[in-house]
Structure to design on (886 residues):
């Protein structure tokens, strides 16, 4: 899918961006590129669909004093991308309304920007960059509860600061970014095929989503046409990933309200699905299924197995929603309004549970699923809606898998066409609807065909700010349930 | 002083102490099996205790005596309660002190010691857990005391040994509405007091939802072992008390050795059965929202009040009151259902405020005023309670 490229001076950027946003585009990612020692090129990718439209704004900056006019007042995600870019590249967003550090670890040495070409190996931790101030809420009876970044269970690290009165949350500040791994830097200078394994490990539960977005980007850059059979196989893998993750969440949500038996059954169903994944791709989390130019299936799911899993999931959902206490705990808990979800740029099931019909399978299709694709939308925006949307989507995914299985020949080993020796465009964008939401990956190739820059935007990057908004006026003991209903990735957020 | 009585106390304390971790293990295992999991086996709590007791004691910096003494106070109060309650025999050297109010107060002492320890750590979780625990305790204690008074009325004493031996000799007491209501109310209190579903979730790892566990997050090693043992003892002794009060069969009232041995075996069997039933019931429950806990315990409290009414010989009054409540509730439901769900009324049919409306209203208000001034049925109940209090 070719995209329109517009080269701009920094001063022209806000007007262009405002026009695109008014036009219904959303900002999918912002990436900085150090083309040569003197200049930094910042790419703003705006997308809209259907019909699939992609517009790139390229802005060149002087590398000695890199600064861009801020877009934070036009789009909330833009403000976050700018803060990320400042922390990793040292590009200053001028007049930013919220200029705190975002990605930066407090112990990184001052003036060290890991994504710059001259950054070198990770240095020793230096003195802290000063405290990270939390807004203090004042008033009679207000107190603070600090939680994390080390938690009691097997959860990724995040620090949460609750300001509460009694048990009611007045304000929550989530401080994430404890897991920076330098993944985008690791891509640089690698062969595109060699880097595929890295994309499958960006967020362990989203192997297919990230690998597919990356493959689509590379194929976009090199002009490779993927055969229909492989596209179907990829769509099948994407839905297999959605089902097993949604089932896990359905069980975990029941577990968080103390109804452990449904979690035990969810794990049983999940195990069944993981074994199915293993027969299909040879890996329980579907790694190795998507390859550059094609897909690699060892076997196809059987209809009877899919039907049995579908019946199991329906039983689980009926039992959960039929339980008065479980239903009571879910209903009306942590409501995210459609307006807030829209303003924050939420994606995936979080957005769809709040009434926003975002779905990259519909807006940016790599394979036409036709009438089979239904984008489910619920409008209550509470934990119940986020539970039900997962149940509906898991069911829909099984329908899609069942249908795609009939279209694929048995036992396909889909051939990988060799990429053409001379890349045609040298940059490409891949957009997929991973199970958490829309994943956008943009790559650039050097003239020798090696990767020069890979930028990944996981849906969690867009959805994390929605969690504190939804939690206002919720009680503290409902936080873990709400957090699970969002189930955002820390690893995918902090690359 | 009788030898079997002393032996009964010693055996009872030994059995409960040794059996408490096994009971916890049994309950977890029952739950695991019912959920289709293998489970770690019923010996796991004992293995955990052994592991923790071997560890180096660590105390959080800045904590004072409250933090250090709480585990000991918790276990000590639980052990004293274990010695006092007539689980195996009603004729022991301490049965004269086995007062229900003493038992309730000892349990509350343990709870308060833990809450103080939670506050002493100075962490947000300790304070949060202590605050939640005290909220629950404030709802539990009145219910517990109300149950105590209701149970004491037929026996004419708050002494547990008297209540139990009275029930052994007159089992008919247990089949009354009093007995059933008391059983339900005490069960609800046991669940809340020992931090089980649906009030608290003992197996959660989510620190923000915890009640009991949040208070003890800072404990480790031998102190944690004591806390866990204390919690297991309280659960065991409360279940034992439930069994003794409502299924007193087998508890010896004499001095025979064989009867004592049988009583101990039956005690173990009854508590294990009760624990398994509770664990099995938990499989079907979910944890209620924290702000719903008062509703659950207020329900238990109302049951206790109704039961006290029956026990005071005012069964007719309570029955009439319950029927009236039902009628009022049905009328309210009918009216509001029509208002909320029915078709919209024809426009402009004004409600006439005639005699048929204000006469019942006035009568009701007068009745309420008369009740408030004379407290006629309540006076007997209060007098009965006062006479028990004064022995």
């Amino acid at each position: 899918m070719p995209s329109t490229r517009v080269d701009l001076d920094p001063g022209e950027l806000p007007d262009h961006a405002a026009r695109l946003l008014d036009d219904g585009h959303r900002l999918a990612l912002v990436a900085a590129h150090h083309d040569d020692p003197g200049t930094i090129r910042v790419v703003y990718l705006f997308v809209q669909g259907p019909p699939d439209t992609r517009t790139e704004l390229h802005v060149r900056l002087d590398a000695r004093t890199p600064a861009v006019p801020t877009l934070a007042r036009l789009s909330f995600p833009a403000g976050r991308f700018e803060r990320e870019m400042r922390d990793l590249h040292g590009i200053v967003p001028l007049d930013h309304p919220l200029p705190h550090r975002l990605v930066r670890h407090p112990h990184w040495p001052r003036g060290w920007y890991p994504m710059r070409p001259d950054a070198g190996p990770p240095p020793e931790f230096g003195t802290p960059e000063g405290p990270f101030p939390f807004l203090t809420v004042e008033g009679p009876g207000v107190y603070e509860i600090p939680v994390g970044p080390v938690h009691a269970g097997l959860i990724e690290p995040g620090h949460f600061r609750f300001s509460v009165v009694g048990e009611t949350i007045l304000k929550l500040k989530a401080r994430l970014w404890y897991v920076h791994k330098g993944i985008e830097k690791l891509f640089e200078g690698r062969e595109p095929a060699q880097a595929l394994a890295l994309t499958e490990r960006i967020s362990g539960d989203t192997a297919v989503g990230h690998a597919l977005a990356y493959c689509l980007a590379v194929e976009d850059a090199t002009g490779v046409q993927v055969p229909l059979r492989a596209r179907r196989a990829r769509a099948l893998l994407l839905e297999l990933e959605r089902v097993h993750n949604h089932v896990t969440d359905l069980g975990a949500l029941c577990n968080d309200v103390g109804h452990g038996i449904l979690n035990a059954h969810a794990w049983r169903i999940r195990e069944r699905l993981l074994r199915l994944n293993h027969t299909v791709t040879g890996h329980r989390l579907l790694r190795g299924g998507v390859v550059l130019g094609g897909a690699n299936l060892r076997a196809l799911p059987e209809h009877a197995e899919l039907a049995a899993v579908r019946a199991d999931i329906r039983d689980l959902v009926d039992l959960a929603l039929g339980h008065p206490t479980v239903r009571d705990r879910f209903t009306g808990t942590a409501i995210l309004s459609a307006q807030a979800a829209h303003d924050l740029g939420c994606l995936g099931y979080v957005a769809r549970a709040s009434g926003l019909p975002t779905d990259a399978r519909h807006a940016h299709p790599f394979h036409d699923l036709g009438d089979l694709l239904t984008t489910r939308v619920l409008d209550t925006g509470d934990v119940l809606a986020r539970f039900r949307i997962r149940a509906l989507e898991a069911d829909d995914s099984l329908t899609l898998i069942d249908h795609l299985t009939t279209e694929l020949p048995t036992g396909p080993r889909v051939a990988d066409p060799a990429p053409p020796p001379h890349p045609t465009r040298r940059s490409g964008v891949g957009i997929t609807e991973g199970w958490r939401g829309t994943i956008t990956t943009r790559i650039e190739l050097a003239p020798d065909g090696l990767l020069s820059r890979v930028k990944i935007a996981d849906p969690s990057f867009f959805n994390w700010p929605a969690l504190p908004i939804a939690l206002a006026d919720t009680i503290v003991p409902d936080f873990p349930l709400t957090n699970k209903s969002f189930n955002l990735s820390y690893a995918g957020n902090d690359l | 002083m009788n030898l079997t009585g002393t032996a009964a106390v010693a055996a009872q304390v030994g059995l409960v102490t040794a059996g408490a971790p096994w009971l916890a293990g049994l309950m977890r295992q029952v739950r695991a099996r019912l959920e289709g999991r293998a489970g770690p086996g019923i010996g796991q709590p004992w293995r955990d205790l052994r592991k923790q007791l071997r560890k180096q004691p660590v105390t959080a910096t800045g904590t004072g005596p409250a933090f250090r003494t709480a585990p000991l106070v918790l276990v000590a109060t639980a052990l004293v309660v274990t010695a006092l309650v007539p689980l195996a025999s009603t004729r022991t050297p301490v049965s004269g002190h086995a007062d229900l109010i003493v038992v309730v107060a000892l349990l509350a002492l343990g709870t308060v010691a833990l809450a103080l320890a939670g506050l002493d750590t100075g962490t947000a979780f300790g304070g949060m857990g202590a605050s939640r625990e005290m909220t629950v305790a404030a709802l539990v204690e009145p219910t517990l005391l109300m149950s105590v008074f209701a149970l004491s009325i037929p026996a004419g004493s708050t002494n547990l040994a008297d209540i139990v031996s009275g029930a052994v000799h007159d089992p008919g007491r247990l089949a009354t509405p009093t007995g059933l209501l008391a059983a339900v109310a005490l069960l609800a209190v046991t669940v809340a007091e020992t931090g089980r579903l649906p009030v608290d979730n003992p197996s959660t790892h989510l620190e923000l939802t915890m009640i009991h566990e949040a208070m003890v997050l800072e404990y480790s090693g031998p102190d944690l072992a004591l806390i866990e043992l204390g919690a297991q003892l309280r659960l065991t002794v409360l279940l034992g008390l439930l069994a003794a009060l409502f299924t007193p069969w087998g508890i010896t009232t004499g001095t025979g050795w064989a009867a004592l041995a049988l009583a101990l075996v039956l005690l173990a069997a009854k508590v294990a059965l009760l624990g398994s039933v509770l664990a099995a019931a938990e499989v079907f429950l979910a944890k209620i929202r924290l702000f719903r806990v008062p509703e659950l315990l207020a329900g238990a409290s109302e049951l206790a009040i109704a039961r006290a009414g029956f026990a005071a010989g005012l069964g007719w009054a309570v029955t009439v009151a319950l029927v009236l409540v039902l009628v009022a509730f049905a009328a309210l439901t009918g009216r509001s259902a029509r208002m909320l769900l029915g078709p919209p009324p024809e426009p402009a049919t004004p409600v006439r405020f005639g005699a048929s409306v204000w006469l019942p209203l006035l009568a009701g208000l007068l009745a309420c005023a008369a009740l408030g001034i004379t407290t006629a049925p309540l006076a007997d109940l209060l007098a009965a309670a006062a006479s028990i209090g004064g022995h």
